[in-house]
Amino acid sequence: MAEPLSTYEQVILRIPYITSASVYQDANGAIRIQLLSDGTKSPRHVIREVVSLLRNYGFEDIDEDAVTVVQIQAEDELERAGSRLTIAGFSVGHSSLGIVAQCRLGRGGQIYEGNGQGATIPMAVAMATVDAVNKAMAQLEQLAFNGIEQARVGGVDVMVVTIADPGEEMLAGCGVLRDTVEDTVIRATLDAVNRRILLYSGQKI
């Protein structure tokens, strides 16, 4: 790879649905790529297109495993359809077992309250949000919290949440860190599951 890393960032940003790109070397000297994209294409599609594009520009050593994609849906997409859950409130406290959190989600005039407990505030809030989502969906097989991490992509701090659904598919959502960590975690969790909620409710998406 003879070109400077910034050159490859500029190449990637030619793809219209990618809003931010960071190409860097990790502590072991391996090339890593972090991308921020809208929700118009699946993460797998994004990765394949980026790798193909870079290889056409002479970046032969790039591997799909080196690419990380964070997707943010547009506000109008998140707000369309009345069945989507919205944030109605949250609270965080401490117990002898760690952090405890409560999340309240609203939909159609009803409030669904979930509880979570974890080693950190983000983890507890994410668990509480998933619990509230499960109560709202009232499914026999429920979603399960998988993990949460804060990342910095193209100079933007985002919170990424992963959730396992009953079909063993992994869902991922993110939220830009604007206000409180708690609010961002809830938004990231809803970003992961709101589309799945529409599927369960039988609405077209």
Largest sheet: 3 strands, mixed
Could you tell me the mean pLDDT?
A: 82
CATH topology of the largest domain: Double Stranded RNA Binding Domain
- Major β-sheet strand ordering: 1-2-3
Helix/strand order:
HEEHEHEEEHEEEH
In the predicted model, the low-confidence regions spanning at least 5 consecutive residues are 77-82, 198-205
Cα radius of gyration in angstroms: 18 Å
Kindly name the structural category: alpha+beta
Per CATH, the architecture of the largest domain is 2-Layer Sandwich
N-to-C CA distance: 41 Å
**Helix share bin:** 25-40%
For the secondary structure, the number of strands is 9
What is the CATH domain class of the largest domain?
A: Alpha Beta
Please give a structural write-up.
With 205 residues, this protein is α+β, with helices and mostly antiparallel strands. It has two domains: 5-71, ANL, C-terminal domain (GMP Synthetase, Chain A, domain 3), CATH 3.30.300.30; 84-201, Double Stranded RNA Binding Domain (2-Layer Sandwich), CATH 3.30.160.270. The protein has five helices and nine strands; from the N terminus they run H-E-E-H-E-H-E-E-E-H-E-E-E-H. It has helices at 5-12, 43-56, 75-79, 121-137, 181-201, and strands at 18-25, 31-37, 67-71, 86-95, 98-107, 110-118, 144-153, 156-164, 170-176. The strands form three sheets. Strands 1-2-3 form a three-stranded mixed beta sheet. The termini are far apart. Mean pLDDT is 82; it is low at 77-82 and 198-205.
Furnish the topology, listing elements before pairings.
Layout: H1 5-12, E1 18-25, E2 31-37, H2 43-56, E3 67-71, H3 75-79, E4 86-95, E5 98-107, E6 110-118, H4 121-137, E7 144-153, E8 156-164, E9 170-176, H5 181-201
Parallel strand pairs: 2-3
Antiparallel strand pairs: 1-2, 4-5, 5-6, 7-8, 8-9
Helix pairs in contact: 4-5
